[in-house]
Amino acid sequence: MKLDIRQAREADIPTIEAVTLAAFLNAPHTSHTEQFIINALRRAGALALSLVALVDGVVVGHLAASPVVISDGSTGWFGLGPLSVEPAFQRQGVGSRLMRSALDRLRERGASGAVLLGEPDYYGRFGFRAEPGLVLPGVPPEYFQALLFGPLLPQGSVSYHAAFDARG
Hints:
Elements: E1 3-7, H1 13-24, H2 34-43, E2 49-55, E3 58-67, E4 69-70, E5 77-85, H3 94-108, E6 113-117, H4 120-123, E7 134-135, E8 144-148, E9 156-159
Helix pairs in contact: 1-2
């Protein structure tokens, strides 16, 4: 399987939406709004990264990253997600490659760190972990995880872009 990762293009938008819908169709913890979130982030100019995974030139995965606000005033932090992989390509390393590429690109940009909401066992392999002083209100703390790129871990509440409230 030849897998390539690149920045998304305008022509990829319909496929990204289809992949996202398929990826979350039977997911246990979802509001089925992930495609709306990505579209709203794009419209708002808030997609810091929009990476696609291609197998033989066909988009089979997508990862979005957008800036987050931390109540202590820390800057340079990004929220990762949604991460979507076409079901036929799940458990084949596509999501891992997207995640590693996103983390590398954020580090290259001088980001301070990244946060995400997700399964601790999966995201722990990339170095993410729950940090007691960094919280996303309203979610179980073990599922909100951070990865520090620099020397200082912020302390406070994290707020994602308003696009994460998109419902249609």
